[in-house]
Design a protein that fits this description.
The structure is a homodimer of 301-residue chains. The first copy, chain A, has a domain of 209 residues: Farnesyl Diphosphate Synthase (Orthogonal Bundle). Chain A is built from 15 helices and two strands. Chain A has a two-stranded antiparallel ribbon. In chain A, strand 1 and strand 2 form a beta hairpin. The mean pLDDT of chain A is 93. Chains A and B meet through helix 2, helix 6, helix 7 and helix 8 of A and helix 2, helix 4, helix 6, helix 7 and helix 8 of B.
């Protein structure tokens, strides 16, 4: 057996997801629409596509066909990208650069960026309730409802939106390690966990496997955030495609500011180990999940 | 038979909807959450509740129990209120007053208002995919999926979001009557039509009745907008709970600016007649729909 090539896997999955996103936008956006153009700009500006790739990889790990999770994967990327567009707004983080290019409100304007975000969030639920992706036809309405409910709960006021609110509110004030971790669980963790859950669920995985995927998702989500904080201190802005040192400038509590850089790195590695352990009951088809967990803490961008 | 008392009907329906919205927020918001507080503030600041009332009234007109449409009604009001919060932002219409009180970003701040809107939009889909309202249990997942798809499509980039984009883009430039009507169809019409459709659908109405309700919704939606434009010229800011003369100040094309005030009033009355005609095949249970159509053009606020 050839050793698993993560780089190749990620490229293939990214292409599949981006092709689907392009097809979706071609199908759904109104010709010559300014908000449609802004959505296309932000959605196709690159990015790691971590959430949709995790969704597809979890589907395969649980024995499913990755195509079956394609609509859910696209919806998750729509929601993630909307959250970035709104986070970057002047009233929020006021960032000029994202994924190596001008942020949506810098390229267009604030009003357009707000509406592009609103449109993408809504489009996610349009996709999840649709039969746009051929393979969606394989699922009955009860599977679709379960996925919609999981995604809406993760993205909403008891998930991502609450996490983002706490993130903004916490600027300039010192958080405890516990509060910081809860903030990140809400802001990024629950959506990543939902991505993995959706993949497993659409593969027909049983509850105990979904629980294991859930533990994997929680650990990977946190490892991702700890690494994000580390990269904001010690990363290369060129590779990252965004500015560094911004957390310190905003006096944000981060893992490096609370634990130090070295302990943060150690912790990220421990979280990766926990993630890999969580899926130890899965066979070789979970190799992408294991490799992604390692990548999440080793990444340079 | 007593004559139908619209005022009494509207009060009763408003109370039922607002009680449900309060129960929803009590159930779903995180204690001491700033974004939860902002959502509560904006959602419970009053308002006509036109969309949820139309949803319940259409359900009854088609022979259903209004309670069956309560979750859909709440979701529609969440979406409508989110759109108001985002429309009022400084980058959009920059309004300080809404429903007679300070707008969300004025009372809280811009970041909180953006997230409150995002949270409400997401909560709408959480509610629609849930069994939160007791009567939701009466519906199977396929009914829920149909409602979610209709609502998401109406609120999204081929509906409300596109309409709002055109509205912002059109400021300061003269629109044709046709373009103005298409703008309003997208911005408000499709969501009102979706409200009526959901009510009828959840009552189990057959396709030809849903078509008639659709025609009613389109006419009422447009009559509502024509009247909105008229009130912005000739209304009483005290009664309206918002400023008047703002359209002219922003050089927005409106029905009065294109047709004159008198012809606009005539057209609003014609649209009301069309709406009433559309539901002529319904029995006395459609009396609320007929009375609401008349009210939409006669209203002072």
């Amino acid at each position: 057996m050839n050793p698993f090539d993560l780089k190749d896997y990620l490229v293939q999955r990214r292409v599949r997801i981006e092709d689907s996103l392009k097809a979706l936008l071609n199908d759904r956006t109104v010709p010559n629409s300014r908000v449609g153009e802004a959505i296309r700009y932000s959605l196709l500006a690159g990015g790691k596509r971590l959430r949709p790739i995790l969704c597809l990889a979890a589907c395969e790990a649980a024995g499913g066909d990755a195509n079956d999770a394609l609509a859910a994967a696209c919806a998750l990327e729509l929601i993630h990208t909307y959250s970035l567009i709104h986070d970057d707004l002047p009233a929020m983080d006021d960032d000029a650069l994202r994924r190596g290019v001008a942020t949506c409100h810098t390229k267009f304007d604030e009003a357009t960026a707000i509406m592009a975000g609103d449109g993408m969030l809504t489009l996610a639920f349009e996709v999840l309730s649709d039969t746009w992706v051929e393979s969606q036809n394989r699922f009955g309405p009860s599977e679709k409802i379960a996925v919609i409910h999981r995604v809406a709960s993760a993205a909403g006021i008891r998930g991502m939106v609450e996490g983002q609110m706490r993130d903004i509110a916490a600027e300039g004030s010192a958080l405890s390690l516990e509060d910081l971790t809860e903030l990140h669980r809400l802001k990024t963790g629950v959506l990543i966990e939902a991505a993995v859950w959706c993949g497993g669920f659409l593969a027909g995985a049983q509850d105990h496997l979904l629980d294991e995927l859930g533990r994997y998702g929680r650990s990977v989500g946190l490892a991702f955030q700890v690494t994000d904080d580390i990269l904001n201190v010690a990363g290369d802005p060129e590779k990252l495609g965004k500015s560094v040192g911004t957390d310190a400038k905003r006096k944000k509590s981060t893992y490096p500011s609370l634990l130090g850089l070295s302990s943060s790195k150690t912790w990220a590695r421990e979280l990766v180990k926990e993630a890999i352990d969580a899926v130890s009951g899965f066979d070789h088809r979970a190799e992408p999940l294991r490799a992604i967990a390692r990548y999440v803490a080793d990444r340079q961008r």
